[in-house]
Amino acid sequence: MVYFIGAGPGDIELITVKGMKLLQKADVVIYTGSLVSGNILDYCKEGVTIYNSASMSLPEVIDAIQEGIDQGKMVVRLHTGDPSIYGAIREQMDELDKRGIDFEIIPGVSSFVAAASRVKAEFTLPGVSQTIIITRKEGRTGTSEGGKISELAKHRASMAIFLSVQSISQVVEELLEGYNENTPVAVVYKATWPEEKIIRGTLKDIAEKVGDEKINRHAQILVGDFMGSQYELSKLYDSSFSHMYRSGKE
Ligand code: SAH
């Protein structure tokens, strides 16, 4: 059996209990060395075979999995955050399907929610935004039609932008097509790692601040009025509002 496991954003205690238990049993672990903290491998048993996928191509990763399976071993493919978001797991799963190799996916804490926790924010605020857009600047690996940040900005939703901090100036330019320049932005570098940095600003000044800190990788760009001071109180906890579990008071 092969397990695709979300390692979480960095702090090794943010893997799920299920993910950790499987990692403890694994005979072969292939992990994304550039993004997953090496300390997480401390969970592994002695004698485990470890591959760092940072320097491997897709066929090499698949070969390593196949070899483990042929030897009756338990194989873990460890991905940063949650595997379903910019994890490139689809191509691995399709290849395993072709070869008749069984696999399961264990979700993880994605870096966009980890970043929100570090800035102590709620993405969905009544009267502000009930929608989160997860996206990235179109880059070397391409993006689909209609996915341009300038188009998405027009929704003025809460936004989490992955893989894009190296182009922060262009990202800001595109965002300004929808949001006003006073919209709060937080850039969270290596959320939950010891070297984490949080830079707060607005669309007006964030590019300069990020430049000053020389952050050009491994960061979330969070954008939206959900980080501002205005919002409406939640109806769910409003004392005059009735719902399935509570009667409202007059
Ligand atoms: N599957 C991962 C994303 C992989 S793509 C997830 O769910 O988080 C890699 C990008 O994710 C990085 O360029 C960065 O934008 C973001 N990222 C991953 N870990 C991060 C962290 N700890 N803090 C901030 N951003 C992170």
TrEMBL record:
Question: Which PROSITE patterns does the record cross-reference, listed alphabetically?
Answer: SUMT_1 (PS00839), SUMT_2 (PS00840)
Question: What biological-process GO terms show up in the record?
Answer: methylation
Q: Does the keyword Signal apply?
A: no
Q: What class of enzyme is it?
A: transferase
- Organism domain of life: Bacteria
The pathway noted for it is: Cofactor biosynthesis; adenosylcobalamin biosynthesis
InterPro entries cross-referenced by the UniProt entry: 4pyrrol_Mease (IPR000878), 4pyrrol_Methylase_sf (IPR035996), 4pyrrole_Mease_sub1 (IPR014777), 4pyrrole_Mease_sub2 (IPR014776), Cbl_synth_CobM/CibF (IPR006362), Siro_Cobalamin_biosynth (IPR050161), Uropor_MeTrfase_CS (IPR003043)
The UniProt entry's sequence similarity note says: Belongs to the precorrin methyltransferase family.
Q: What is this protein called?
A: Precorrin-4 C(11)-methyltransferase
Q: Which organism is it from?
A: Dehalobacterium formicoaceticum
Q: What is the lineage of its organism?
A: Bacteria, Bacillati, Bacillota, Clostridia, Eubacteriales
